[in-house]
Design brief:
- The chain has 2 domains: 2-50 and 113-143, no CATH class; 57-111, no CATH class.
- It is 35% helix and 31% strand.
- It has helices at residues 50-67, 70-77, 79-86, 101-110, 128-134; strands at residues 2-10, 13-18, 23-25, 29-35, 41-47, 118-126, 140-143.
- It has a 7-stranded antiparallel beta sheet with strand order 2-1-6-7-5-4-3.
- It is elongated, with a radius of gyration of 18 Å.
- The two termini are 23 Å apart.
Length: 144
């Protein structure tokens, strides 16, 4: 068994014991499954830094849009937004207005919390074997 300690309460706990099988590692992040007192599972995404979190969120939405049908893209972004972008005008779903899809995706660099359900949580302590599994020392986590 290993552990991770977060600076904020998540599921009314700050310190979690985790097994190595509860960790899935990716290129720039890892997903750790946590169990609360009631036995329910949740996942946190851990990153080396906020920049990696922003890149992960941007990559998710870019891949999502690349894999969807035209109808789904219109449903997600809105016809008015897509028409405005085609005309070179600022628009966008949400409060930030930009001139194209790439600029909209780039908004996640500075606001990864827009993608995740909760966080950011600062990681106070993590077991060395978990760092070895994921290949970096995580400093920030988001709930999903």
């Amino acid at each position: 068994m290993s552990f991770i300690k977060l600076d904020s309460e998540i599921m009314k706990k700050k310190f979690f014991t985790i097994g190595e099988s509860d960790v899935t590692s990716f290129d720039n992040h890892a997903v750790i499954s946590l169990k609360d007192e009631s036995g329910s599972w949740t996942e946190i995404y851990v990153f080396k830094n906020e920049e990696d979190a922003g890149q992960c969120a941007r990559d998710y939405w870019e891949d999502y849009i690349d894999g969807e049908t035209s109808e789904e893209i219109v449903a997600i972004l809105g016809a008015d937004t897509l028409i405005a972008w085609a005309l070179g005008r600022e628009a966008g779903p949400g409060s930030s207005k930009v001139k194209n899809l790439n600029e909209w995706l780039d908004l996640y660099y500075d606001a990864p919390e827009e993608h995740f359900d909760s966080g950011p949580y600062q990681i106070e302590l993590v077991a060395e074997n978990i760092e070895e599994i994921i290949g970096f020392k995580p400093t920030v986590a988001y709930g999903m």
